[in-house]
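Q: Given only this backbone (151 positions), what sequence would you predict?
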């Protein structure tokens, strides 16, 4: 398959890429490993943000960089409705985001990173590559109590 950015792939190409990845990653797994891998993959896939991404791209305004010098307030007003792509000679050179949009994206990234770490831990526990010690359990319970207190 020719190298392509994910955003340039149609659903069939993306599905083929995922299947190739699964085949490659699970070929040496025993019966315990493969189901856990699939469960992790399905969980991460369930966190997919494609609809949000498509929605975001559909409402992006594009403005030339020169407009920042001429009428910056007009661009700042556009930020209220979503990101603004800045162009120079019709080539995108940057994206402006409101602090709220930035925080939303950053929070989502942290959630996805946490999900990956959780599944890595589950995989390591299930395959015996890691174990939970009593001290780890006590630490996790302490963290959980603090989290509940912060809500």
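A: Predicted residues:
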């Amino acid at each position: 398959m020719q190298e392509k950015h994910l955003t340039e792939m149609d659903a069939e190409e993306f599905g083929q890429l995922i299947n190739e990845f699964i085949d490659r990653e699970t070929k040496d797994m025993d019966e315990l490993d493969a189901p856990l891998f699939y469960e992790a993959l399905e969980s991460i896939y369930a966190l997919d943000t494609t609809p949000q991404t498509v929605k975001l791209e559909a409402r992006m305004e594009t403005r030339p960089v020169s407009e920042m010098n001429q009428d910056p307030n007009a661009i700042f007003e556009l930020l209220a409705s979503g990101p603004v792509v800045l162009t120079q000679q019709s080539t995108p050179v940057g994206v402006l985001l409101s602090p709220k949009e930035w925080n939303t994206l950053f929070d989502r990234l942290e959630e996805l990173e946490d999900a990956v770490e959780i599944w890595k831990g589950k995989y390591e526990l299930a395959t015996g590559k890691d174990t939970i010690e009593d001290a780890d359990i006590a630490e996790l319970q302490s963290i959980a109590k603090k989290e509940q207190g912060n809500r």
